[in-house]
Design a protein that fits this description.
Length: 92
């Protein structure tokens, strides 16, 4: 569990599936982790904010996406989007 960072039940399931073989269980967990990453990669981030920031004669418009409208309305997300726009002002 310490070597893989996986949860206890995932480690137990991997060991049971691989008849107690540590190396095979690690491979199983790696493959399972890749499958989880593939599932998350297919999600669409269709919500978010468009923020405009201005300073003197320079303006930027930034789009920051998220998966749900609940996140898009959150004050932390709005603050993050504003921070991204402000940071973009500093880029030449």
């Amino acid at each position: 569990r310490e070597e893989t960072g996986a949860g206890m039940m995932d480690c137990k399931r991997a060991l049971v599936e691989n008849n107690g073989d540590d190396e095979a269980a690690r491979d199983y967990l790696r493959m399972k982790g890749l499958a989880k990453a593939d599932k998350k990669a297919s999600r669409v981030a269709s919500e978010g904010k468009i923020v405009v920031a201005k300073k003197e004669n320079k303006s930027v418009m930034v789009e920051v996406n998220c998966e749900t409208d609940f996140v898009a309305r959150d004050t932390l997300f709005t603050s993050f989007a504003n921070s991204v726009a402000t940071a973009a002002l500093g880029v030449e």
